[in-house]
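Q: Here's a chain of 891 amino acids. Please give me its 3D structure as tokens.
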Amino acid sequence: MARRDLRTLFSSNDRSISADEAFTNRQAQWRAVTACLAEHIQLVAGADFNVEDLESPRQNILVFHGVGGIGKSTLSRKIEASLAGSELRPVQWESPSHPEARTLPVRIDLARAARTDFERVILTIRLAVAALGRPMPAFDLALRRYWEHNHPGEPIEDYLRRGGLLSRFSAAAALPQQIQSALSDVAQALLLPGTVGGALGHGAGALIKALRERRQSVRALAGCSRLADLLEAEPDLEALSFYPHLLAWDLAQLPAGNSALPVILLDAFEDTGDRTHRDFERLLQRIVWLMPNAFFVVTGRNRLQWAETSLEGQLDWVGPNAWPGLVTDDAAHPRSGASGRQILIGDFSPDDCEEYLARRLSRDGQPLIDAPVRRVIAERSHGLPLYLDLSVMRYLELRRGGRQPQVTDFDHDFPALIARTLSDLTAEERHVLRSVSLLSAFSVPLATKAASMDHDAPALRLIERPFIRESPSGTWPFHIHDLIRSAIRNAEDGSDDRWSQQDWQRAAQRAFHALEEEWRQDLRRDRTVLVGCLQQGLLLARDFGLDLGWLGGAAFQYVADSIWEPLALPAARDTSSGGLQTTADALVETLSAIARRQHEHRERTASRLSAVLASGLLTDELAELATYYLAKAQRDLGLTDDSRRGMQRVASAGGRLAFAAGRGLAHLSRLSGDFPAAVDAAGRLGWEGRHQRVLGDVWWVQGDMDRAAAAYLAARSEAEQHGAVGETAMSQAHLAFAVAFTDPAQADDGLDLADRLLLRLSLRSAEMTARIAALVREAGYAADLPDRAAVLLAEIDVSGISYAAAKLQLALCFHHAVLDARDELAAGISLLHELTRSGDYAYYVEIAHFMADLPLPPNVAQARWIDGERRTRERWRNIVMTRRNRLGTAR
């Protein structure tokens, strides 16, 4: 039957509510249990298996570890019930794959609240074995001697009754009789006088002597080679910890029809001690090692470290040779990944969370908690079952208050999550945990610096905890489980060493400076380090009102290479308006708008940046950053006058973006058709102003593709020398575009390279240039080129990059000119005229006429060509005729 949830049952007067313990998922863990059991059964049944072998590696253990509240104890109970009888097995679980072997499951709760000492562990295992109905003579003799020495005058049955063990095991009452049976057999074999109960006490020496002489009278026990040694040893706790070897030997002697495989489930293993005090853990490890024919399932918060040689001297058997199944995948990072016998229990999926909540509370077979509330609880839980359980109790508490719980009632953090998380951490580990809860990701050095510690040990211990997750590919590989991090940051902390608001403020300042140190030490200028520092630093500055400090320099570094990784911060918990409240807010919005312009319409970009500037929150230097990119967006939207004013303002300030603004003014001169002015401006820009790319942009519209390609190639080379991958990709896209007019074959390679360079970047304008270049390369050849251009035009309309639409239309005019399709060309020129009506890029209309050697109409505004209209016309006409001739040859 299902386990009743008594706590929930006694939380409401409404008897129509069904409150059952819900169990969901965990099929993967059950499959691991059955697979390992089947493997173990096969090993024990092998002809070369020797229960007295104390040197072979042990594979008789499976460990499930995970954060507190993840459902480890529930899993342990379900495994015990499933192995005890198939009718108790959860419906999701398949039947065990070893029907030929009888299992004898026994679960031992090691939690502090259960007050389970080592003596009770040994008795519990023996009581479980009592169900086989057979004495365990070697073990029982040693146990009786231990009992008489340590519990004089106290019958073992009285102890079992007082401790509740008699009521737990149906066969427990038979244990004293089984022990007496073993004593009687010994007394009879040795012809000892006196009562059966005292036979061992008076005749221990005789028995030991008989065993050592391997007399025929005790041949049943003489095969246990270490029995005499254990009977001679002082019967204390140390000796008791080696008695499981005798029990394993006894089990191995049972005939096949009476045998069974003990499956011993050790739950709450974290409560056996800590990383320094391992006395209880050492005793438990002896049981596992000395009973190789039993199978152990350990559940606890932390993985077992038994395979680590560093524990030599603390435990009896350590290292990868002793416990190959407990070895982690990466010795350098002990908690990265799980080996086959150490499994991290994961969070519930969203569907599992909703199923749990639907089944936990019900009325007349229907879920008591309605679907919207279940969804928000599931979302807030991040898959942690403890949060689901706490939310169920909160739901009932709100109902007791006389109202129906609503979705908004569950935007809530539970202090109980903090208590469960901190319960087995040292003071130093708690200090580091609170410090790194301010960070979304961290490394051991960063955690140590953020906690202002002079040694790494607490951070190294912390990252082994199951609530610390690892992403090896990240800049900082570790992060706290999202729900636990939220609770530590936001829930009321009732612990003795809780932090005040001043403590949190000081910790934020420490973490902020630690991030600054990480950024300044990044000599390789790794973009992932930069973005990570910005992301976390901006959040700290915003939430704790810190001065921006180093964030300004990091922001300019972020925009310098035009890569545009996404930058976004979660909404502030204390801000409902969503408006800009702090300088950090304004900088985040600036950088987000700049990056998102690759994916949003330029009108949206201009609107966001205008709002930032209107807030007045930015420093003068950062205001120049917003002004410059606002001017770029305005240029793309065709707002030339506004763009020019913004660029002039930034250029005259002489700040970090002065050269970039100079390039912007050069571009404005170019798009107005004043090419001599653009060339003159390029001469003053240098690398900082991307002078070679500016020249390339001028030369291709002159029809001088060789000089344009040379300039773009030089721009790419300079970018490579400076390690500017964004500029490298952009220059390559423009180079491919220029080459596509004159050498389609060479353009193939150029476009392939451009695609590879752009693959990991977010450069919308460069991507558009490359795609237009692909159309230019196929002009005259591809019959479907107009259709493909129409698809690209739709994407350009979404982006708001107006100049790209005109550039695409010019490519179409080139296609029609090559084919000498005069009607289509005329229509294309007419559309091109509409696209350039503002005066920007109006020279595209002239170029289209040059391509077809058509006279210019009187209403066309003529550009200032570098070496005159006639030479420019000739060059464009030659490009068209060369392509037409190639097309004829190909046909």
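Q: Can you summarize the key feature?
A: Residues 347 and 631 are 48 Å apart (CA to CA).
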